[in-house]
UniProtKB/TrEMBL annotation:
<dbReference type="GO" id="GO:0005737">
    <property type="term" value="C:cytoplasm"/>
</dbReference>
<feature type="domain" description="Phosducin">
    <location>
        <begin position="56"/>
        <end position="189"/>
    </location>
</feature>
<protein>
    <recommendedName>
        <fullName>Phosducin domain-containing protein</fullName>
    </recommendedName>
</protein>
<dbReference type="InterPro" id="IPR051498">
    <property type="entry name" value="Phosducin-like_chap/apop_reg"/>
</dbReference>
<feature type="region of interest" description="Disordered">
    <location>
        <begin position="23"/>
        <end position="60"/>
    </location>
</feature>
<dbReference type="InterPro" id="IPR024253">
    <property type="entry name" value="Phosducin_thioredoxin-like_dom"/>
</dbReference>
<feature type="compositionally biased region" description="Basic and acidic residues">
    <location>
        <begin position="51"/>
        <end position="60"/>
    </location>
</feature>
<dbReference type="Pfam" id="PF02114">
    <property type="entry name" value="Phosducin"/>
</dbReference>
<comment type="similarity">
    <text>Belongs to the phosducin family.</text>
</comment>
<dbReference type="InterPro" id="IPR036249">
    <property type="entry name" value="Thioredoxin-like_sf"/>
</dbReference>
<feature type="compositionally biased region" description="Pro residues">
    <location>
        <begin position="29"/>
        <end position="42"/>
    </location>
</feature>
<dbReference type="GO" id="GO:0006457">
    <property type="term" value="P:protein folding"/>
</dbReference>
């Protein structure tokens, strides 16, 4: 019969009482520390991967982040891929639209650069005015409101004689409408915009035949129709509100 030799191994790091006594008296080196693996910690989860990838997740991204985002990052979700492209297009369009938003003061030397050489997709409304003329102030207030409502349209103001030497004061205020370097329309005098000059009345005149005012959602004829529809709605709301105020005043007097 073959001889079998067994080698017994105790638990790693274990020692006998004798070895412990020898170490106590310094006859043996200290016992090496028992190996202990580092405690398990789950890998750090990326913030984006922690959040569900849905429409709100995309809406919280900046334009630059959407540019860097690849379709592969959307887990082959065709809807989210298409929504990302749509959202990116909307953000670029908003940046394109939000150009102006106020009436820009210019001098004669600025006219060519600011008006004649404006990009072909920008409509420019120029008011020729002079300080001290009430009619100019009324039209200016209307244009200030329209400039805020339609920031894709460029509004500028220039003193009449700085633009056209010896321009008659009796023609003030005058509006010039430019597009692609050419004059598309001109309106002389406040009476051009009706008996009572309002932002809605000025908008209706400006958009009679051309998409001068951009609604920020569409272009060309569609934009013009959308602006006109919005103007008509606000005009009706204004009239209704005036009648309600008049009725309230009448009831108070009774």
């Amino acid at each position: 019969m073959a001889d079998y030799h067994f080698v017994y191994k105790d638990v790693e790091g274990a020692s006998t009482e004798w070895e412990d006594l020898q170490r106590k008296y310094g006859n043996l080196p200290p016992k090496p520390p028992v190996f202990k693996p580092d405690p398990f910690t789950p890998p750090a989860q990326d913030q984006d991967s922690a959040n569900p990838k849905d429409k709100s997740w995309i809406d919280n991204k900046t334009e630059e982040e959407l540019e860097d985002l690849e379709d592969d990052d959307l887990d082959d979700d065709r809807f989210l891929q298409e929504y990302r492209r749509k959202r990116l297009s909307e953000m670029k369009q908003m940046v394109k639209i939000a150009k102006f938003g106020s009436i820009i003061p210019i001098s004669g030397s600025d006219f060519v650069r600011e008006v004649s050489q404006a990009p072909s997709d920008v409509w420019v409304v120029v008011i020729l005015y002079k300080d001290g003329y009430p009619e100019c102030g009324v039209l200016m207030q209307c244009l200030e409101e329209l400039a805020k409502m339609y920031p894709a349209t460029k509004f500028v103001r220039i003193i009449s004689t700085d633009c056209i030497p010896k321009y008659p004061d009796c023609n003030l205020p005058t509006l010039l409408v430019y597009n692609n370097g050419a004059v598309k329309a001109n309106y002389v005098g406040l009476h051009t915009f009706g008996r009572r000059c309002t932002p809605e009345g000025v908008a209706l005149v400006l958009c009679q035949s051309d998409p001068v005012l951009n609604d920020g959602q569409s272009e060309g004829e569609a934009s013009r129709e959308a602006v006109l529809e919005g103007v008509r709605r606000r005009f009706i709301e204004r009239v209704v509100k005036q009648h309600e105020n008049n009725d309230d005043d009448g009831n108070t007097s009774d």
